[in-house]
């Protein structure tokens, strides 16, 4: 019998809070999440369901919505990022604080969505962090880079620049969504003169990272342009939402 596991099971609780949100066309609503009994909570995954996920944009923030961790990213891209893989560590909701999730429906019809947090209650999170510390490793806390833009029909290799923090990051996974179809949008990625990803269809990016990290993590330099080059071969304009899971170097 694993004594440590039995001790953890006797203290930790399975806690996966969820919020259903009904959004009229163009409407914005904010829901709030706390840890169990207002204690710390480590968000390890998001489980997302509902209609119109390509059209509903999400912002995740702390500090009464001012400290944004993810901004204006489609629920579809977030769903793809977490569908078959967890974060390396956790996004930590501190004791007596809240995670604000703001949802905006950019479609011209109503949609109902559900956002569920999957992660570690305070006891489980403490156990995880202690395990890392015992091995001399800092507990991983993710940072995300993201962008959502609309590209007109027939436009090739349009450049969109992604904002980066003032420190180096290591990129491990990516996910992309579109209001069109994945075979209408092609994407390449470059930082400065270094090509990170040649031009591929969106489906290829999502297939590559659905359940695996990047083969060799890419280092994103601070204050250096990180650009997406997007091609839309579809008949209409489409919105593309990109997000990458990164960790500070």
CATH architecture of the largest domain: Sandwich
Radius of gyration: 19 Å
Helical content (DSSP H or I, runs of 4+)? 10-25%
Under CATH, the topology of the largest domain is which? Jelly Rolls
Description:
The chain is an alpha+beta fold. The chain is 15% helix and 47% strand. The protein folds into two domains: 3-134, Jelly Rolls (Sandwich), CATH 2.60.120; 143-248, Jelly Rolls. It has four helices and 16 strands. The strands form four sheets. Strands 1-8-3-6 form a four-stranded antiparallel beta sheet. Strands 2-7-4-5 form a four-stranded antiparallel beta sheet. The model has no long low-confidence stretch (mean pLDDT 95).
Keywords:
249 residues; Jelly Rolls; 2 domains; 4-stranded antiparallel beta sheet; 15% helix; globular
List the helices and strands and how they pair.
Elements: H1 3-11, E1 18-23, E2 28-33, E3 41-50, E4 56-62, E5 67-74, H2 75-82, E6 91-93, E7 99-105, E8 111-120, H3 122-134, E9 143-151, E10 158-162, E11 169-178, E12 185-191, E13 194-201, H4 202-209, E14 218-220, E15 226-232, E16 238-248
Give me a quick take on this structure.
It is built from 4 helices and 16 strands. The chain has helices at residues 3-11, 75-82, 122-134, 202-209; strands at 18-23, 28-33, 41-50, 56-62, 67-74, 91-93, 99-105, 111-120, 143-151, 158-162, 169-178, 185-191, 194-201, 218-220, 226-232, 238-248.
């Amino acid at each position: 019998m694993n004594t440590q596991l039995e001790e953890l099971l006797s203290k930790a609780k399975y806690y996966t809070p969820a919020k259903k949100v009904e959004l009229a066309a163009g409407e914005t609503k904010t829901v709030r999440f706390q840890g169990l009994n207002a204690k710390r909570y480590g968000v390890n995954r998001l489980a997302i369901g509902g209609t119109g996920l390509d059209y509903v944009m999400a912002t995740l923030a702390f500090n009464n919505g001012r400290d944004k961790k993810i901004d204006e990213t489609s629920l579809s891209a977030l769903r793809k990022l977490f569908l078959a893989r967890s974060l390396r560590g956790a996004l930590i909701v501190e004791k007596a604080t809240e995670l604000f999730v703001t949802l905006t429906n950019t479609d011209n019809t109503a949609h109902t969505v559900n956002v569920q947090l999957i992660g570690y209650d305070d006891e489980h999170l403490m156990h995880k962090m202690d395990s890392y510390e015992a091995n001399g490793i800092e507990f991983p806390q993710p940072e995300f880079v993201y962008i959502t833009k609309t590209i007109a029909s027939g436009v090739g290799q349009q450049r969109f620049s992604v904002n980066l923090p003032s420190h180096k990051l290591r990129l491990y996974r990516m996910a992309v969504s579109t209001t069109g179809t994945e075979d209408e949008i092609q994407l390449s990625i470059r930082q400065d003169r270094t090509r990170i990803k040649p031009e591929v269809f969106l489906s290829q990016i999502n297939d590559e990272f659905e359940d695996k990290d990047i083969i060799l993590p890419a280092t994103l330099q601070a204050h250096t342009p990180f650009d997406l080059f997007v091609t839309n071969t579809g008949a209409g304009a489409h919105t593309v939402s990109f997000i990458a899971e990164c960790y500070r170097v």
